[in-house]
Specification:
This is SelT/SelW/SelH family protein. By secondary structure, the chain is of the alpha+beta class. 36% of the residues lie in helices and 12% in strands.
Length: 78
């Protein structure tokens, strides 16, 4: 369920920039997020799931760095 929700959120946020989001079935709690072959997030390595605003920022920074994400954007003080 989390993978489908995350995919939906990414496609909704980046409808023109992302051509597709692929869900690959696996076992053992694998939950990796990759973009163009680059691993952005690994549940195993990070010890949990990425927060959606952080994940959107990571994707945005690679595919549309000038794009604003509204409430998902970083605070100016960061």
């Amino acid at each position: 369920m989390r993978a489908a929700w995350t995919a939906q959120e990414l496609l909704t946020t980046f409808p023109k920039e992302l051509g597709e989001v692929a869900l690959v079935p696996s076992t053992g709690g694998i939950f990796d997020i990759s973009l163009d072959g680059e691993l952005l997030w690994s549940r195993k390595a990070e010890g949990g799931f990425a927060e959606l605003p952080l994940l959107k920022q990571m994707v945005r920074d690679r595919i549309a760095p000038d794009r604003q994400l509204g409430h998902s954007d970083r605070k100016a003080s960061e």
